[in-house]
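#data-curation
PF: Archiving a pair of folding outputs for the training set. Convention for this channel: one message per protein, sequence first, structure tokens after, nothing in between. First:
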Amino acid sequence: MNLKKACHDMKYLLDRGYKKTTALNFVANHYGLSKHDRNFLVRYVFSENEIRDHKSRLIPLRKITGKNLVIDTYNLLITVQAITSGNEVVKGMDGFLRDTSAVFSKYKFNEDTRDAIENILRILSKHRPKSVLFVLDSRMSRSGELASCIREKLEEFYIPGDARVSRYADREIIKRNRITATSDSIIIEKVKNVVDIGKSLLFHLLFSTSNYSNNCY
């Protein structure tokens, strides 16, 4: 019940112009929320202005056919691996699917990563994009190896594209301003069109899973 109230209170503050960090800390401290619940709030609750803006940029995955696509690689991999491993994911108020684990800085390249890449490429192969560019943050461990793995997988799936390691991954994705696969709010608000590959995968593989949450309660 506290989480439900926290969602309502946080949205109230966001709608009145409070910064997200300020609103989160105030609400989480007031209700004594756990780290997990804090992560949930960040990924679920948005202001009305953000909801309208994010939804206006979200396009169906079929729209990538014949178009250039940029992928926010770690953001998408973490979401896809959460789905396939049965970990909790949440559909935010803005309609985007996100994991609730906050594992970004601790992400490890392993066999699950390879499976996630293949799941992503299976979906992309059905929609035949003109090209796909995976952008990886160079600050993450083994990004170079992961980029090489992605290039090999792109060839296996006969998908034109490349993987690029960048010191300023978010900045590069935003600058390219192509159709972008991400659920990162900062990027969503800076590019013209976004697709939610994680949500498409969930509907295809795990629509009935009990670990899928689309509300606060």
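PF: Second:
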Amino acid sequence: MSFDAIIIGAGPAGYAAAIRLGQKGKKVAMIERDKIGGECLNYGCIPSKALIELANTVYSANETPGLKSTIDIDFKEWQKWKWDMIHKLTSGVETLCRSYGVEIIHGDAMIVDARTVSVGENRYEGENLVIATGSSPVHFNGMESAVSNREILDIENVPKSLVIIGGGYIGIEIGTALKKLGSEVTVVEMMDSILPGVDRELVAPVERKLKAMGVEILTSTKVSSVNKEKGYSVTLEGGKTLNCDLVLLTVGRTPNTQGFGLENLGVEMDGRYVRTDERKMTTVPGVYAIGDVSGEPMLAHKAYYDAEVAASNIAGEDAVVEYQAMPFVIYSDPEISYTGRKGKNQSMFPLAANGRALGMNSTIGSYRIYFDESGIVTGAGIVAPHSSEMISEISLAVEGGLSAMDIGMTIHPHPTISEGVREAAEGAYGKPLHFKTGR
């Protein structure tokens, strides 16, 4: 069989490329060895946020002043609901793909050459090849008994005690959720701060909230081994041992580049990743790599974007990547969202001065708008409830070359958390309504 494009992988990068190419009238084959939707829809983004929503609901009921409640969670019932919800989402993606004429092939792909891929005894020919194989959790020797994000999101009982190895975004998100659901949580991070790589001014409010909740954070600490007998024991460098009911290992992800014949192409690598140009083409003409396998950041929305660029080029259009306003979100408490770059100046508005946040009993955080000497917005960092829903406003401002005054003069509804974005923007020219700056 011959196709305009063969896509290996049906995660966000793969299925997005398939849909976009189908919309452009191209004949597409998409090969997937596991489940449509890949890691994100089945084992990562979607189920983890569902767990976080459950935890936030329980936590809010317990922490709201004047509200007295006892909540009994049937985790088996919740897991059934979760998988039913995921199935609705993934089956919807599959239906969409098929509606655009995409042929979905289940099985293990093996690259024969740049134009040929086999699945079992069947061979498929394509004018273009798209590698969208995603990434997998990193594992360490001596820690084989620890669970990854996949297993912990399928638990049917909340562990009484949990040790998380790795204080990156996955560890902090899941650790926060399980603490809210009743676990005693300890986070072990080898760097000198949790969420390494994120500006300290954004991390500090989250760290403060975690400590207030009773999460133990051990930074500048390495783990030597993990042992499992009746329970778990985590041995730290220096000899200290932590005993717990469950251990979560979350120390990053590695691109999937083995086991499907990538070496048969002779593509150049960029460290662990497949090297691509600004059109997402590899060093082999007609072969593209998108999503996690093509480089950081390993984000589903970056994968969607890569897919759009690759599909456009395969269809004969001219598209190049431009990541100047790539939003990042950490679903901590409060949420951290940031985009663009810091620039030379910044304006800060405290979350505690926002009326909606006060009414939510959630006042730890801030809004920061970054701008240049002309007042043009270069980025932002927001630490607030639902900041994930607000950061796109700043990405649009960066992409559009808007000024802080453009945002400040835009009417935002009251009372909302998003008002803080406007007030932070007003602070760039010294005029926030509900906070007096030093200007």
